Amino acid sequence: MKIATKIIAGYAILMVMMSGLLAYQLVSFHRMQATVSRLADVNFQTADTALQMMRDLDMVDFFAQKSFVSQDPDYLEPLKECSSLFETDLHKVESFTGPQSEQAEIHRLAGFWNSFSDEVSLQRRSIGTEGRGEMPAVLTDRLTQLKDETNSVYEAARASIDAEVRASLQSSKMAETFSWIVASVSLILAALVSMLIVQSISAPLKQLTQGTRALAEGKFFYRLDTSRRDEFGQLAKDFNTMTRRLDELDRMKKDFVSHVSHELKAPLASMQEINQLLLEQMPGALNDKQKRLLELNVAGTRRLSAMIGNLLDVSRMEAGVMAYELKSADLTSLVRTVAAEFGPLADERALALSIEAPEHPVMVECDGDRIMQVIRNLIGNAVKFSPKGKEIRVRVTSAAPDSAGAPASRPSAFLSRNRGKPLALVSVADSGPGVPDEHKEKIFEKFHQVKQGTKVPGQGAGLGLAISKTIAEAHRGAIWVEDNPGGGSVFYLALPPAEGRSHTMYTESSPI
């Protein structure tokens, strides 16, 4: 199911539930409105009219008593008016549509009133022919029955009002309960729908983020799960197609670089041998200008040979076939050997190359040639970028570097993992232009160079530090750069101390 379909289906269910709740609320409101209308139009009017009828009966009783006691015809007219008022109210009550119990009481009241009216007509003929006396007992009984029945009608109206009010209260409580239930269910359902939608989106987004991050790190072998049947499944297929194509292109590039580098290495070696033979004047004598040109040619072929060597190292590291032979070695001895190689070049540039090292050996487990390659790269960069007449200071120590207040360029994970442990530390301090903060981590990436004005003569392709970082990490160490307080930069190489085990051959395939 597509993501859009899931979202529409989930929220359509919520909309249906909320619409149902709204419809129920409207029906409940209509019922309560009808109840209020019945109370106002029927029940209250019935009760009010019943009270008026009770007052009318009192007046009928009063004038009937007067007419029979006094035998005065003048009381017959008000008696007739009061009777007419009662009859009008009775007809009004009969026109109301109330409950059956109330209607039954009203019909009984109408019957009693008809009996009373007939009896009054019968007794009225005797007024004036008989002497004064009291109202006949039969009329008194009829009036009593009328009053009782009128009171029954009033009580029935009140009972109807109470029943309507109770029904309205019960209906409102049911509406409130139903609203709470539907609202709670809707809230829970909304949470579930939202959670399912978020999960259906966040999980593939997380995989896609991991895939793009892996792709940015050069891991073109990374593939996404394509089992989904939605837009993310199609996106994963397209992503895998892209990574597959990039992997093919990357392999072609690596094969090309490796092949070309390997093919160039042999003729370069021959060129170096020929140049060396010419410098030794084996074919014949050379003048000073010819010697200078050959020396420049030798230096150029050496730089080109170093670049080709770096390209081959990069190819081996990326292919995971770089082998390291670990054995116990004195780090101080390795540093002095490399420094001796750069002695003539430092003298030529009028640079003071000093080495500070402890008297005792600083033993580490390493591949000596590879660690010398790292040190050679650090000292070579210092000689290359330091102005003439400045000092390059190389120090070898055995201590635990302090990570408190460390610059952001320091490898925090490495320092945290080795906190409090003595490490073999090599530092190379130069007086060059320094490394800006935003480049302190990037310079250890492939082909990254710090652009500061014009290009420095002899500046490489930006592979040396990337290779050095890979070699250091293969030895469970680290490499980083900090600012030199006196100007320039200080590069650090940290290695764990020797553990006294025999040498081991292993392959480190960490890509750079």
Would you mind describing this structure in some detail?
Helix 1 (3-70) packs antiparallel against helix 4 and helix 2 packs antiparallel against helix 3. The chain is 64% helix and 10% strand. The protein is an alpha+beta fold and 512 residues long. The chain has a 5-stranded mixed β-sheet with strand order 2-4-5-7-6. A 3-stranded antiparallel β-sheet has the order 3-1-8. The protein has 3 domains: 3-192, Four Helix Bundle (Hemerythrin (Met), subunit A) (Up-down Bundle); 220-319, Helix Hairpins, CATH 1.10.287.130; 320-508, Histidine kinase-like ATPase, C-terminal domain (Heat Shock Protein 90, 2-Layer Sandwich), CATH 3.30.565.10. The mean pLDDT is 77. The protein has helices at 3-70, 76-95, 100-124, 137-216, 231-279, 288-319, 331-341, 343-348, 368-385, 412-417, 464-474; strands at 322-330, 352-356, 363-366, 391-399, 423-429, 478-483, 489-495, 504-508. A hairpin with a 5-residue loop joins strand 6 (478-483) and strand 7 (489-495). The chain starts with a helix and ends with a strand.
